Amino acid sequence: MADLGAAGFAIAAAWYTLAVQGMTVASEPSFLASQTLQQRHTIYFNWFVSTLHQERLYTGVAIGAFLCLMATAIFVRNRLSRGALASVGVQAIGAGVACGWSGTWRCLEATGPSA
Description:
mainly alpha; 3 helices
């Protein structure tokens, strides 16, 4: 389970790096001096919307990896000891997963359903 979580983080990080470098999505558009602000906004937001599917993908993979690591942390805590520090650590990981998931959910709601 820990290996799966670590691999998930590595995949999400690599995918993010490829997206930022413009290898898995189109590069950010450049504008001509003759274009109006309206045209620039239209071009930019059309490009931006095309990147959201990629963001959903690598964010989802990272959240899945975090869940694997959370399950591993709970298993290790139960296996080794039930000390106060271990308990606080597992609760902190659970709170981090909940915060990350709720932030991603709000992002998905804001961008609407995928086509």
